Amino acid sequence: MESFILDMQHRICSILSGLDGNEFSYDKWEREEGGYGITRVLQGGKIFEKSCVNVSVIEGSIKMQSFAKRKELKLEEGVDYKFKVSGLSIAIHPNNPFAPSSHANYRYFELFKSDCSEDSEPVLYWFGGGADLNPAYVIDEDANFFHSVHKRVCDKYDHRYYPAFKKWCDEYFFLPNRGEHRGVGGIFFDDLDNKPAEELFEFVKDAAKAYLFAYIPILSKRVNTPYSKKNKEWQLVRRSRSVEFNLCFDRGTRFGITTSVRTESILSSLPLNCIFQYNYKTEPGSLESMSLEILRFPRDWV
């Protein structure tokens, strides 16, 4: 997994740099408790307001009360546990309001007894991740395309995956305080351990590669769309919803901060600009109002 995500990071940065004409920064950091990360960010570009493609490979002790699967585990009294996790995280925020932002991450997690030897099998393992599309202006053909690409890769491995992961994505990337979804969804899964690790790894690799095939054509189609000051304002309002979700509800953000992963890297996925305008209202019948209606009530796109 570590080798794969490092290769994907290089590949994705190369593609996005080629589109924008600017290079990603390169920042490698080490974690005192164990592991490292590589944070790569392009901001203030011609196409991208901000994009980050980050890798983290970390290990350390874990507090079981913060552990998503703790209720399913038969943990031994008085035994300490440690984790190892490798992950790739991508967030892309284009300048053009009609070019959607997007997010993807894929990770592999293992849990061990603290006193285990180097060659010990993990107590458990799982894969997690997914990808979602976050447009300011919802364009049906873009949402259809993004979902169809992810459905194909899911169906290749298990026909139950797409409907389950699509529903999970809709439910996860949701702001309950506003009754709004962050975007038009995609796929999301966590704690995936229902098949041999090697088989699940093949699915994760294909899904991560599919993200590029799902997103880049949409991006390329929309980056030169003419837009107005009003369009830009709406984009920044929607980006504030993304920030709100990440800081208030996202489990990955909380995990990263509570495990002392580098804060600058954890928050690098946030957009460079957004606005929190008090009591913002859309005009009935406007493009903004129609997009917001879709973001409140998820559709079956394929």
UniProtKB/TrEMBL annotation:
Keywords for this entry? Oxidoreductase, Porphyrin biosynthesis
SUPFAM superfamilies reported in the protein's UniProt record: Coproporphyrinogen III oxidase
| Statement: the UniProt record of this protein carries the keyword Oxidoreductase | yes
Annotated GO biological processes are:
protoporphyrinogen IX biosynthetic process
GO MF annotations in UniProt: coproporphyrinogen oxidase activity
A cellular component term (GO) from this record? cytoplasm
Q: Name one Pfam family in it.
A: Coprogen_oxidas
Kindly report, in one word, the top-level EC class recorded for this enzyme.
Answer: oxidoreductase
Biological or metabolic pathway of the protein:
Porphyrin-containing compound metabolism; protoporphyrin-IX biosynthesis; protoporphyrinogen-IX from coproporphyrinogen-III (O2 route): step 1/1
EC number per UniProt: 1.3.3.3
- List the coiled-coil residues: none
InterPro entries of this UniProt entry?
Coprogen_oxidase_aer, Coprogen_oxidase_aer_sf
Family statement drawn from the similarity comment of this UniProt entry: Belongs to the aerobic coproporphyrinogen-III oxidase family.
PANTHER family registered for this protein in UniProt = COPROPORPHYRINOGEN III OXIDASE, MITOCHONDRIAL (PTHR10755), OXYGEN-DEPENDENT COPROPORPHYRINOGEN-III OXIDASE, MITOCHONDRIAL (PTHR10755:SF0)
According to the record's subunit comment, the protein's assembly and interactions are: Homodimer.
Q: What is this protein called?
A: coproporphyrinogen oxidase
